[in-house]
Amino acid sequence: MDTFTRMRTFVEVVETGGFSAAARKLGRSKALISKYVKELEDELGARLMNRTTRRLSLTELGQAYFRDAGEILQRVDDLQDMVRERHGEPTGLLRVAAPRTFGDSALGQAIMDFVAANPAIRLDLRLDDRFVDLIDEGFDCAIRVSELSDSSLIARKLADYRFATVVHPAVIAAHGRPETPDDLTRLPCIIDSNLRNRFNWRFLVNGVKQTVPVSGRVEVNSPSAVRLAVLAGLGFGSVPYKMVEDDVAAGRLEIVLPDFELGAASIYVVYPHRRHLSAKIRAFVDFMADWFQKNGDECAASSPQAVVPAQQGIGLAR
Question: Which of 131, 157, 193, 210 sits 20 to 30 Å CA-CA off 51?
């Protein structure tokens, strides 16, 4: 048994959260997975994991080994993919992070269409509205809804995406309709902890960006949960317009402060700086840009723009 196999098994156990899950993913028995990890520890002469019947945790050495092993394995996979791709189509494992909110929308459809069009690609799609770090967590690329500022990532614009401030009619009846963004400071708001400035919402006032402090008794970590809270009459919420478009049309929710909206946010596919960009990532980026150019109305999209530096670690942010 070679070291790389043991190393890969260890990484899978950590990433999947246990021996059983890793065994299912790798198609091997739990006993064999445990044996490989034990052999790795014996080979290194160090304990990497603390095991109990209920949970496992990494030792300090295990944490360091997991971080570096993941990077080594990624480099090996990239090297193998590069050699294979020179003889044919994009191939290998593609790890993509995207906001959970968009997993069942046009974005999810675009990703699945890419996999269908590239039979040699294996997809590991992680849907999560939290801020993920591409490099530390070993992702090839991610979907972001944000402004761009960090040059540690490269981004390609896929589409425009509108946000709106919405509220249940009963809340307006009880508290009144805000006429300016400043009025929100005295009104109940639903706080989305995924937003970079969750307690400070931004608007455009007389052509100038203005930050308005907001508060409320409900804080959630999902735009979908914001929508549910707003529908329940718990306060004002800032959400992607596509998510509440039907609610607004049906009169269940109302848009407020439309004259002060910042305008459409942007959806980007982002990836780390690399000297040699693998063909699978390049193919994914090009496919997504082309898909959204052809199907832009599904996400209030516009034509993709040039590759630019991107902000790192944002899942869904304004």
Answer: 131
CATH number at residue 177: 3.40.190.10
Identify the domain boundary among 29, 56, 78. Answer: 78
Is the Cα torsion angle 108, 110, 115, 116 positive or negative in sign?
Answer: positive
Question: Taking the CB of residue 276, how many other CB atoms lie within 10 A of it?
Answer: 8
Predicted TM-score (pTM) of the model is 0.62
Q: Which amino acid is at 112?
A: M
Taking the C-alpha atoms of residue 199 and residue 87, their distance in angstroms, rounded to an integer, is 52
Q: How many CB atoms lie within 10 A of CB 308?
A: 14
- Classify 255 in phi/psi space as left (phi over 0), alpha (psi -120 to 50) or beta: beta
User: Containing domain of residue 251, as a range?
Assistant: 163-260
Instruction: Report the number of distinct structural domains present in the chain.
Output: 3
Strand order in the sheet with 163-167: 237-240, 163-167, 254-256
The one-letter code for the residue type at 211 is T
Percent of the chain predicted with pLDDT > 70: 84
Alpha carbon 108 to chain centroid distance? 12
Task: Write the CA distances from 170 to 166, 167, 176, 202, 257, integer angstroms.
Answer: 12, 8, 9, 24, 17
The residue count for the chain: 318
pLDDT digits (tens, 9 = 90+) for 214-246: 999 999 988 889 999 999 999 999 998 888 999
DSSP 60-90: HHHHHHHHHHHHHHHHHHHHHHHHHHTTSS-
DSSP state of 152: T
Taking every pair of C-alpha atoms in the chain, what is the biggest distance, in angstroms?
70
Given a contact cutoff of 8 angstroms between Cβ atoms, the answer to whether 155 and 261 are in contact is no
For residue 29, tell me if it sits in a domain.
yes
Closest CA to 272 of 169, 140, 174: 140
Indicate the SS3 state at residue 149: coil
